[in-house]
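Good morning C.,

I know you're traveling, so I'll keep this short. The sequence:
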Amino acid sequence: MTLFLDSFESSPSSKKMRKKNIAEQRRDLDRNLKTAVLTLSPYMTGSKLEEFATDQKQQGKKKLVGPLFLAIAIQVVLLLLTVFVVVLVPSGKEDPQFSAKKSIYLPQRKLEHKMAVAEFQQAAKSPLQMEKIQVAKMMPTHLPELPEMPQMEFTPVIPDTPSPMGNALFGNSGIGGMMQGLAGEASSISFLGINDNASRVLIVFDISGSVVNAMESSGIPMSEIKKETIQLIEELNANTLFGMIQHSRQYQLFESALIPATQSNKEKAIRWIEDEFTTSGYLSGSKYNGEDGVAAVMEAAFDMQPEVIFLLSDGSYQRTPGGRGSHENVPWSELEDRIEDRQDQLAEEARIHTIGFAVDEEDRKGFSRIATKNNGKYRSFD
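The tokens, ready to paste straight into the viewer:
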């Protein structure tokens, strides 16, 4: 079939020859038919002649129908072959695919987002504004005048020995203890040539007549001591706690507890040094549980729980054991034992620096032992 189609499609001249032959055969047939009709017409009746002519026409039609059907069949076969080749036979090449990158451009939304972010940042930077609440006429414009109070004088009485109730209120377990428990900030301290670093500082001055004379003879007068003390106080940090005690046999406190070195407290301390500091050699002050002398003074000093104590004296400590006017020297061994007992009561032992003025040999040894045993330094001015 394939060979036939190929030959058929490849030789168009054969088609023309075939058509020409068919046309010539048809002409020959018609000519022969006419000749036969003319020859037989004398012998045939009209009906037979018509039947013969009809017969010949039908045969001619049959001869024409055969080639026509053949041509149609060939066209159908060619059509089916074309459909098979084009549609049904798969091609080795892939179908072309058209693709493009997805890109969504939303300029309007992007602009709205930037505006929203800018508004949020602006709102976050600016503080919340709150309207002020104003209240009018809650109280009358003018308050009534205060009634006149009667004039009366008041003179406080300072007992030599604090009462037990006073000790309970202002002592270690009361307001004084609360103030003493405050934590301070350490300051660098330099006082009469002794350097240290502490957050709770206490200076104990012996202002008896013999000490004032010893200071003068050693070239460090009381005015110089005041100047050194004021300079120390002014250089303290605001959170450093400080205090002062002046004494002869009795003592006087600057404050009942160590206080912060704020500007107002510094000014208060300087006024106390300038106004209350005694240089006459006699001081009427307080006793510690009825006892006077340096041992009682050190008991009051340890109640403040200091970290550093500066002890200034000529080393000649006396006390009043009996009636007024009697006196006796305070043994160094007793003073050392009392200090040791109070050190054991502290969470951290205090450092005691001793500073002597024109101290004799025996007192010099006692002063030096106190400093050495209590992690302090001894300095002597002769």
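Safe travels,
E.
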